[in-house]
């Protein structure tokens, strides 16, 4: 029996790992903001230095900004299931981010 349509629903999650006083992070935020004017995705921003985000500090404290793009599947029986993140680090442009979003949407 084929899976129901509901089991096949997914969204694209874009997570920007950032920190305060990071000029490169501000440029990354502007790139995401421009893309969000023409694309739909779930956007999250994580300050790697925040006390509730300490799992990210050892990974990205000195590497911000880092962008994760993932396909997230939504099901009834399980919590959301995310694919492994495709990543861009430091400097990225709209074209690079949109290519990862296309890939996550299954348009590659």
UniProtKB/TrEMBL annotation:
The keyword Transport applies. Coiled coil: none annotated. PANTHER family: GLUTAREDOXIN-LIKE PROTEIN C5ORF63 HOMOLOG. This is Glutaredoxin-like protein. Keywords: Electron transport, Transport. It holds the Pfam family Glrx-like. The keyword Hydrolase does not apply. Transmembrane segments: none annotated. Belongs to the glutaredoxin family. The lineage of its organism: Eukaryota, Fungi, Dikarya, Ascomycota, Pezizomycotina.
């Amino acid at each position: 029996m084929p899976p129901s349509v509901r089991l096949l629903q997914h969204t694209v999650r874009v997570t920007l790992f950032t920190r305060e006083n990071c000029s490169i992070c501000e440029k990354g935020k502007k790139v995401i903001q421009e893309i969000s004017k023409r694309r739909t995705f779930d956007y999250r921003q994580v300050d790697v230095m925040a006390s509730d985000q300490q799992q990210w500090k050892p990974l990205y404290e000195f590497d911000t900004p880092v962008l994760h793009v993932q396909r997230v599947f939504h099901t009834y029986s399980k919590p959301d299931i995310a694919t492994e993140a495709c990543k861009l680090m430091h400097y990225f442009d709209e074209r690079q981010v949109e290519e990862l979003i296309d890939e996550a949407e299954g348009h590659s």
